[in-house]
Amino acid sequence: MKKYWNELEDGTMQWQDRDGNPVEAPQPYSGPKGKGMGTGKPTGWPLECEASGVHHTQRRQLEKFMSDNGCPTEVNEHGNPLYTSQAHRKKAFRVRGIYDKHASYGDAEPLN
User: Fold this and answer.
1) In DSSP terms, which residues pair with 48 in a beta bridge?
2) In this structure, are residues 77 and 59 in contact, taking their beta carbons and an 8 Å threshold?
3) Are 85 and 93 in contact (CB under 8 A)?
4) What is the average per-residue pLDDT within 73-100?
């Protein structure tokens, strides 16, 4: 069943079916077998970033490096950093000297 996020007459928002009946909010997609794409949070944060991850044996080194450089970052058991916001992700990328190749507004872009 399709669900729609509609504005009511009083200005509030509500999930509804196509006939306008209230329904439960859809669950975020979490990839196959509950792993992968979704964060399980409506905001998308914290974000687990595989692209900026390290080998799982280097996770403590990365956590220490990030803390020593003023950007404390949790790294999960797979070696992937968990960014808490877009600003945190941008700062962490700058600390490591990496950038988002497809940067948009607010992302870490090349500095030169």
Assistant:
1) 82
2) yes
3) no
4) 92
pLDDT tens digits for range 30-42: 444 444 444 556 6
Give the integer Cα–Cα distance in Å for 100 and 93.
8
CB contact at 8 A, 100 and 92: no
Q: In sequence order, which residues have a C-beta less than 8 Å from that of residue 39 and are 6 or more positions away?
A: 28, 45, 46, 47, 48
Q: Count Cβ atoms below 10 Å from residue 79 Cβ, excluding itself.
A: 18
Residue 61, φ and ψ in degrees, nearest 5: -60, -45
Q: Write the single-letter amino acid at 54.
A: V
Please tell me which residue, 112 or 91, carries the higher pLDDT value.
Answer: 91
- Name the CA radius of gyration of the chain, rounded: 19
Cβ neighbors of 11 (< 8 A, separation 6 or more) are: none
Q: How far apart are CA 93 and CA 49, in angstroms?
A: 11
